[in-house]
Amino acid sequence: MIRHSGFTLIESIIVLSIVTLVFSFGSVSMKRTAQINAERHFWQEMKQNWQASQSRAQCGIGATSIDYQPTDNSILFKWSEYRRVKKTYHERIKIPSTIKVISFKKLVMMPNGYVQAGTQKFYSSTYHKQYKMKVQFAWGGFYVADN
């Protein structure tokens, strides 16, 4: 009888099971990392667009409305410029699927920089936390607090 070195069926199944487990754990952690990055990107875009709205107000370009669009789950920054004709612009920020909007009252940043104070509420399923975006008066900005 000739003996060949190699894997038996049981050894092959064990090795394939271990490889499958290693890859599945890796994909789970990669998915969570992608969710964390998407949320971080959302808050950075909010801050960037808020600061751009403040800059437009300081330059006297016009008011900016900031509103939640439930149909496509986004925040819409909308403003107009008056040169020879009125031209309307908008910037849409997509909300990640892991963030749910609990309440969002429409905000208007006036040409003089005034913004009515208020609190917008979000829930993150990634961190299992409620976030409050607290808008400050006038030239103040907003900050995000978690509960």
Automatic annotation (TrEMBL):
<keyword id="KW-0178">Competence</keyword>
<dbReference type="InterPro" id="IPR012902">
    <property type="entry name" value="N_methyl_site"/>
</dbReference>
<keyword id="KW-0472">Membrane</keyword>
<feature type="transmembrane region" description="Helical">
    <location>
        <begin position="6"/>
        <end position="26"/>
    </location>
</feature>
<dbReference type="GO" id="GO:0009986">
    <property type="term" value="C:cell surface"/>
</dbReference>
<keyword id="KW-0812">Transmembrane</keyword>
<dbReference type="GO" id="GO:0030420">
    <property type="term" value="P:establishment of competence for transformation"/>
</dbReference>
<keyword id="KW-1133">Transmembrane helix</keyword>
<protein>
    <recommendedName>
        <fullName>Type II secretion system protein</fullName>
    </recommendedName>
</protein>
<dbReference type="Pfam" id="PF07963">
    <property type="entry name" value="N_methyl"/>
</dbReference>
